[in-house]
Amino acid sequence: MAGGLKLYNTLTRDKVDFEPIDPDNVRLYVCGPTVYDFAHIGNARPVIVFDVLYRLLRHTYGADKVTYVRNITDVDDKINARALRDFGGQIADGSMSLNEAIRAVTGKTESQFHEDVASLGCLKPTVEPRATDNIPQMITIIQRLLDMGHAYVASGSEGHEVLFSTASMADYGMLSKRKLEDQQAGARVAVENHKMNPADFVLWKQSADTEPGWPASFTFEKTTTPIYGRPGWHIECSAMADRYLWEEIKDRLSPKAKSKPHQFDIHGGGLDLIFPHHENEIAQSCCAFDNDLMATVWMHNGFLQVEGRKMSKSEGNFVTINELLATEKFGGRKWPGEVLRLAMLMTHYREPIDFSVKRLEEAERLLAKWPAGDAGDLAPDASVLEALADDLNTVAAIQAVHALAQAANADPSKLPLFVASAALLGVAPKKAEVSDDLSAAVQALVDMRLEMLKAKNFAEADRIRDELAAKGIQLKDGKDKETGERITTWEVKR
Ligand code: AMP
Ligand code: ZN
Question: 3-class secondary structure for the chain?
Fold first, then answer.
């Protein structure tokens, strides 16, 4: 890749040359969905954007050299509320436990999410851990923070809490560039009494009977307090990133990577996660592991609006991935996954997107001009690689792919290069499988059209051609070299 990969790093607010700590083990973590309801089209943006990055990293460093972790957040008060709403009766009459109800909500939502993002052409991450499968790892990190003077146990209105002490970290606020003093001075809300500092955040909190919880004990200032409770939001990502990008793979990392324990290459998510979520992940991980950096590069996608307005249920413009794919709610029709995907990539990931019917129609028109075929084992074209290497410039990459499509339409020998290049964006038009029945039916119409042409019934011949075109079948007329007779071949365009 000419010039190498450059990525915008939110931490330094500039574009940097990307150099993985260990090129044989490139490590990427992206915050995944909270599984309490259908994912909306805004949630699809980080999934698609980081899928393109994953594809580019796999191409550059080798498909088996990249570890991509995207978590599932299945501990959240919204999940509890949903479980009580949907299964309150069963919980009350004892036929279902709260944990079973929660599992039913998260299990169903998670499978729906997997179906949705597969339709958007996204590869599966290497590991997709659930928060609830990583509770012991979170407890271990929290105890480390207590031992190292970065956390404390306090009693709030809802019981015991373990809190992170923001004042204990000299450079707290490094990602969002917020200064702790500003937050103290500007704090409008009354400081909850049990917090040493208004910016201090929950690592673990006590659970009531109607809330999910796990048994845990924490030792603070030589006193051990059992707290049946649940983790705060941020600690799960510190724990899962460390488990899957350091703890479980550290033995195979290079000496350089081993000399930077616990640090990995790229952490991503939407812009809204910079503060407090990512700031607090950094605080937890850097303090627990005594590191300057949690991840080298921090990437954030911009926000998505719908038809010019912030997407919200009250605006009536809230739309889920599933509604776009399977219902006529948006623009009065269903939209194919690859149209949604291309529409998303038509704007640079750091810019805001306005998701609209017009944009989807534009993406669909473009896709209709792209031929289908197989890539063979060709590599993507340099023009597309260069565009993506410039901080994932998908806008320029789509232009480059389109130029390759036009070249392939004019000269079929260029088709594999186009297909290999489009695959880097995750848009890979494949030749539709043609059943024997369809093939026979098309051939019968093609033969009839030839008869009509011979009989100079051009109107009927054109009607047949148009009928086939409407079904995505394109005819190509030529002459038999030996006999000079007209012959017609056909292909399924899309
Ligand atoms: P959540 O399930 O709310 O934690 O969000 C999952 C991911 O979707 C996070 O990376 C969010 O930053 C991202 N996200 C949520 N809403 C939008 C939006 N409207 N536009 C772009 N990204 C979003
Ligand atoms: Zn996270």
Answer: CCCCCEEEECCCCEEEECCCCCCCCEEEEECCCECCCCCEHHHHHHHHHHHHHHHHHHHHHCHHHEEEEECEECCCHHHHHHHHHHHHHHHHCCCCCHHHHHHHHHHHHHHHHHHHHHHCCCCCCCECCEHHHCHHHHHHHHHHHHHCCCEEEEEECCEEEEEECHHHCCCCCCCCCCCHHHHHHHCCCCCCCCCCCCCCEEEEEECCCCCCCECCEEEECCEEEECCEEECHHHHHHHHHHHHHHHCCHHHCCHHHHCCCCCEEEEEEEHHHHHHHHHHHHHHHHHHCCCCCCEEEEEEECCEEECCEECCCCCCCCCEHHHHHHCCCCCCCCCCHHHHHHHHHCCCCCCCEEECHHHHHHHHHHHHCCCCCCCCCCCCCHHHHHHHHECCCHHHHHHHHHHHHHHHHHCHHHHHHHHHHHHHCCCCCCCCCCCHHHHHHHHHHHHHHHHHHHCCCHHHHHHHHHHHHHCCEEEEEEECCCCCCEEEEEEECC
